[in-house]
Amino acid sequence: MAAEEEEGEVDWVVDTIAGFLRGPAWAVPVLEFMEQKCEVFDDEEESKLSYTEIYQEYQALVEKLLEGYLKEVGITEEKFQEAFSSPLAKTHTSQAILQTVLAAEDFRLFKKMMVQKNIEMQLQAIRIMKERNGVLPDCLTEGSDVFSEIEQEEMKILREVLRKSKEEYDMEQERKRTEEVSILSF
Hints:
- With about 190 residues, the chain is mainly α.
- The chain has two domains: about 1-140, Up-down Bundle (Adp-ribosylation factor-like protein 2-binding protein fold); about 140-185.
- It is built from eight helices and no strands.
- Helix 1 crosses helix 4 (about 75-85), helix 2 (about 25-35) packs antiparallel against helix 3 and helix 6 (about 105-135) packs across helix 8.
- The two termini are about 40 Å apart.
- This is Cilia- and flagella-associated protein 36.
């Protein structure tokens, strides 16, 4: 019976943590961090010194968020480690959910995650430019490395679009947080 209770507790801890990792209290700060810091990451083999500094900031963020949540729900560090290493946490679905936590312990995974976010942000900017202008600037279609004055101006516009897109996203996230807080307070 004790083994079943322990297994049930591990299941509860894994489910509780998975729920937290899917929720806004985790997702919003982690996503904001990634979006703000990903632009320096590229797919080069060699890592830059700035990557290490950003990685350390990420580790601190993950630790702060997890410690706060674990304390809030009464899960000890030992129970967390036990659940984290359980077979339930090793499933493919759990691994996908836990990726942002695992990245705090594995620099290569962190770098891969940040490079991917950088690519996503660039693709989003290109899509927005195409939607707003109907076409892409020549510098994004011809493979030219030399920027003309017009192309430099287009890059300024691209940066402005990215900035405005981030502002719109931040406002939307704040609106969602406000809605959630007001819903939870009822």
